[in-house]
Structures are given as C-alpha cells and as structure tokens.
Amino acid sequence: MKIGIKAAVLAAVSALATGALSPAQSQNLTMAVGAQITSLDPHYHALSPNFAVATMIFDTLVQFDADAQMEPGLAESWKPVAPTVWEFKLRPNVRFHNGNPFTAEDVAFTIDRVPAVPNSPSSYAIYTRAIERVEVVDPVTVRFHTRSPYPVLPNDLSQVAMLDRETHDKASTDDFNSGKVAIGTGPFRYVDFRSGERLRLERNEEYWGQKPHWKAVDYRVVVNDSARTAGVLAGDVDFIDQVPTSDLSTLKRDQRVKIAEKDGLRIIFLALDHLHPEGSPQITGHDGKPLNKNPLLDLRVRKALSMAIDRQAIATRVMEGAAMPAGQFLPEGAFGHVPGLEAPKADPEGAKKLLAEAGYPDGFRITLSGPNDRYMNDGRIVQAIGQMWTRLGVRTTVDAQPWTTFVSRAGRQELSAFLVGWGSSSGEASNPLRSLVAGYNRDKGFGTSNRGRYSNPELDAKLEAALAELDDPKREALLQEATRIAMEDVAIIPIHIQKNLWAMRPNLRHESRADELTRAQDVRPAEAAR
Amino acid sequence: MSVYLLRRLLQSVLVMLAMSVIVFVGVFAIGDPVEILISPDADQMERERAIKALGLDLPLWQQYLSFLGNALRGDLGRSFVFNEPALQLILQRMPATLELALGATFLALIIGLPLGLYAGLKPKSPVSSAIMAGSILGFSLPTFWVGLMLIMVFAVQLGWLPSTGRGPTVEVLGLHWSFLTWDGLRHLAMPALNLALFKISLVIRLTRAGVRETMLMDYVKFARAKGLSPARVTYVHVFKNIMIPVVTVVGLELGSTIAFSVVTESVFAWPGMGKLIIDSINVLDRPVIVAYLMMIVLMFITINLLVDLAYSALDPRVRLENK
Question: Which InterPro entries does the entry link to (chain A) (predicted)?
C-alpha cells in the first residue's frame, strides 16, 4: 500500500511538473527514437529511420504488416499479367494532404523521380531499377514493364513512397525538409521539422485507412540510450524504441513502463574469409607464422567453428533474452524460411574432432573482428565467441571497433572472421541470399555485402532461377534449397535473430513490427484495444 | 595595435588551412563514407553512383583542391547526410550550444567567485574546508556519470525537471532560443549545471589561490594601514588583481565548452553543435566535420584575442605589441 501511495504521489508530481495529461486523454503522443532522421524527402536517403518517417507522411503501393507480410497500400491488388508485366490496381478516391487526387499518373511520376534525386548518398533507385517503363492504363490501373521476369517487384515497391506529380514536380530535398512539399497521402500531416531534434505531425483527418488515434505527435530523436530510457521513466516521453538490453530487466520490473517486443528480421552472423586460398590475413599458426593455406576454406573447420558457439548462452546471458538462436537467415513465417533447419547445437567435443580431422588438432590463431556501436551488444557477442573458440584451441584475438573503421576494413577484405548483421528489408529470403552469400558479381548485382567473398555456383544457379520464377510456391522451394545449400556449406555462421524492443507508458499499446520501424500509427491507448 | 591584429589574423588563416588538411586526411584514413551511408540493399552499380555523386571518386588531392576553391568563395560544401550546406547546419545548432555554454559559464562565475573568495579570506573556517573538498569532487567526477545521476534524481525520481531535449524556443533575430521561456529554462537547468560543475571548481580554486596570495601583498597591507574599509580592500584592490588568471581560464574554458560539450549534449539529448559533430563523425560526414573544426579554430583564435585584450584592460602593464 505504501508503495502504491508513493507511486501515485510520484505520478502526480511528474504530471504537474511536465504539465501533461496522460497520453490516452490528451490525444498527444511524444515518442523518442534512437536513430537520426536525415531527410524528409522519401527518395533521398534509403535508411530505415527515414523510411519509418516516410510511412507516416506518405504511403506506398504495397505495405508490410507487423509480421512483414505484404498487404494492400495505395494499390488494392496486383498480379503479373505477362512474364515481364505487373499490373497494379490503385485505390480510388485517395487524396494528398493538399487535396490533389492520387492517380496512376502520380505513380509514373514517382518512378521517374526516384533515380533523379540529386546528391543522394543512397538512392531508392535500387527498388525501381527493375522497371523499364510505366504504362498508365487508366487513372486506377498501372502496368510496370520489367526487363526480365521480376517476381519481387511488389516487395521492392513496398519501399517506394508515392508522390504527387503536380506538387512534387521539380521539388528539391530542401523543399521537403522545410515542409513546403512534405505532402503525402499518409496518416499524418507535416507540422514542423528540426533536423536532428524533432518532427511534429498532426492527424490526417481525411486518411483513407484506419485513422491514427493521435491528434498531435512529437517524434523526437534521442540517440543516447540512457537518455531515452530516462525520458520514458521520467514521463517526458510516452514511447521509446531501441531499449538497451542492459536496462531490460530493470524496466520490466518498473510499474511506470511497459515493454513490447517482437521477433525481428535482423540476423547477426559471422562472415569468414573465402577470398585468400594462400593464407588468410589474420590467421597464423600457434608460432605466429602465417599458414600457407586458409583453414577457413575447409568445410570441417567452418563447421567446427560454428559448433563451438553456444548460441543459447549468448541469447540468454549476453542478450538478456532479446534474441533467438538462429540456423538460417529468416525466422519462422517468413517467405523462404526452411522448416526444420535449426540453430546448430553447441558441441565443443564434436568441434574438436572435426578440427583434428581437418588437420588442425591444436587449432590455430585467428582475429575475430566486429563493430562495437552498431548492433545490440555487438562488442560483447564478439568477446563471448572469442572465448568459445579459444576453448576449442583456436586462439582468438578479439578486435571490436567503431562501425566506421570496421566496415571499411571488412569491405577491403582485410579481415579473416567478423561479426555483422543483416536486416532483410523485403521480408523474404532472396534478399539475404542475394546480398550475403551469392558470389560477388557486379553485372548481376550479387554479393554486394558478401564481404567474405563466399562463392558457390550451385547456390547462385538456384538463386537466379528463383529470381526469375513468378510462381510463389515454386520460388519459395528454390529459395529454401538455396538457403539449405548455404547453411550446410556454412557460407556464414548464423548466431541469432534479434528481438526488437520498445518501452512505453502502461496505458499504451503498440503493434510491434518485425521490420523495426517505429511509427506513431502503431501506438494506441490500451483501452481502445478492447 | 593594428599590426598586432593583422599578424594574429594571418596566423589564424594558416592554422585553419592546416586544420582542413588534417581533417581531410584523417577522415580519409578512418574509412569510406559511402560504406556507411549507403543502404545495405544497394548493389554495385548504386555504390558507384553514390561515390560519384559525393565526389569521392576523385583522388584526395583533387577533392581537397576543389574544397579549397569553394571555401574561398565561402562555400564549405554540403553535408553528405543531410544534403544541406554544412555551415548552415552548424549555425542552426549554434544557439543551443551557445546558451548552454554561456549558462554554464554564468553559473561557474556566480557560484565559483563568491565561494572562492570566502575560502580565500577565511582559509581556516570549516566552511572553507567543505568548499574545497566539494571542489575536488567537481574536478574528479566524470561529466557523463554526473549527468546521468542528475537525470536519475531530478527527472526520474523527483520529477522536478525534464530529462531530455530543449523545450520550447522563442525566435529572436531569426534564431531559436530557449532561455527566454520558463519551460525552456527548466530544460536548460540540468545540462548547464552538469557542464558548469567542473568550471565552478576551477573558479573556486583559482579565486582562492589568488586571494591568498594577494592578501599578503604590500599594497593590501598599505591599503589596510591607510584605514580603508575591509570591503573596499577586498572588492577593489584584491578582486581586481585576482581577475587576470580567472578571466584567462574562464575564457579558454568557454571556448572548449562551446566546441566540446559533446558528452553533456548527448546525455541530455541537447540538440547542439557537439551532438552534430559526434553524429557527423559517426557517419564520416566530412564536409560537416571540416567546417565545424575550422569554425572552432576560428573561435579559439578569437577568444584568445579577446582574452589578451581583456588583460590589457585589467592590467595596464600588459602591452599588445610586437616583440
């Protein structure tokens, strides 16, 4: 009882101090997010925090639901009408915030604008490149002609925010940031934006879909983890994302907040050097002399290194439960997930035996690198794996660095083994297969993030067949086969799939998303749930 | 005097040039901005396009020369990340940092000077010992930790003050200021105090040492013998003479507070320049880093100059001349 009174007094004092009513009554929502918004131009910088903001102000033809399954957005339906033609039926009577109607002409304009945004450090053109031309059939029908059969066009288009030809013709990135043309069809309208600080939004009363609960949203950028956590504890903000796992157990016990979690689409894995057959740059014998061949090219060594890792221990102890041990790219339920392909069990004895069979009974020395500021607890995961490997006889030097230096070195193939993460933006398996394990090939756009340069023609062939297969079940089977090949050949060593974490006031409810996006329309008062 | 100023100006141009070269080479050595900025989904073609769009395909010396050419015309380049002019980006956040730094310096002076004076005049009193012991804490506690503790106590436990952010701002002369509203002041209080803690201790110690030394001087004895009131001796004769080291140190401290209040700004999510520079370093946004550091160099040179001028005003023996 005493505690109850204390809590009530505390709540009253903080309500007085902040001058705010509880969010459910006030219809105002204050959110704090951990990642920087770099632009309001939805086609300027392809980055998931920017995309989260884009999906509040704008809409895409195809949307992802909370479980990363496609659902209709501005398009009501879509189907391939020929091997290289997709037809999309648009939602009629949708209007932009300024009253202009949304039509097929606007789709054609948007597809034209995407690759033409000047100075873009990372263009959304990667999602529209497959489109050769856009055919406007009538105001609510549009056909995309692709160069070759392209089954993942709907997935790609789920990343492209639709603009208005009339409003956004010649609109510059600055015009979006200043709010002049931050006009979409989305659930919220632009009010005010201060780069690096906050974005203010108000409800779009004319929204075509389910209207958001909040009349006004204050979307703040608070990069520091402790500051964000303190903010929600102090009641300055109602909702935060990227809850640090070190605070998880404290927050779970605290009455003032509620935690929401959701299995994500981001896999944390180790990549291994396949590029240097005559000895990997960071591997030596126990005498410190370089080896004359690269042990990582031996499947038994790769298997041993994978079996030596106790994934369960990492998930429960290092990650405080905010991770699921993984044996493949995607979690259950995702398109291309292989049923029954489990995370390898920790088996140090078996690993030792395999290592001996491969001709390394005493192991060797290796440097395991990784970032220390990029993924949840990345530096600590690398340390834990280093210890597990060392126990195997593979004496591991751990080298955790800031992402800026790390990623450049990994991209120059200077590392032998390193930890990275991958969020599958399309929610299906062709995305990680293509980027992470397909052989590096500029013309096909394969292997862009395959920094270990793994290469397997059999896998590439399956993937290429999948990328041209319009029939969903057949494509899924091909993707599953390719995934199985990659995992059995230990192309990468999967560690775990992260859980996404949010914390909020107890009177709120969040429809938590697998794709990590933090958006105001997913938050509602808890009582409205029933 | 004008020759002196001219020479200082020339020096500053040279230092800024050197700075820009160091930053250019430094960022180049750390890594490749495109690797960091680009979407992981981007293919090889897109990477090549981005490298070209940001002008990173040219050799470093060529990039530097074109930067220098633009800089002479007053254009310090556009941020890779925000696609806004780097200088504009920095200036937008300057008011936030300035009010934080000035607030902290103000606190340091109004708290530090009286306490230091007291400790200097009554060195034997237990209050003085307490002040001195407290100042050791102010020196030795890390800003980061103190900031978090302040938040824990005043925002999370007591709920008196807001934990993060800047609060409402008022537009004066086209810039946003928050110290003009009550809520803005409440937001300012904790970060300013956090930043001031070290400075308060510094001012206390400097003032005390100065007072102790000056009190034994002949002119103080003479002033007393002349029958001047203790107040006049303290506030006119002693005070004026101890101000020289205090002004120097506070001036330089103000500079470093403006330039490097990174820790406080990130703990309190204060949207100032310090946060901008750390964010920019994290994504290797070179135009912003270069512009920022060049501006900081300029600022330090200016502050040094002002300190020298303040010297000569406080102590007629100091002359600003070529030696």
Answer: Peptide/Ni-bd (IPR030678), SBP_5 (IPR039424), SBP_5_dom (IPR000914)
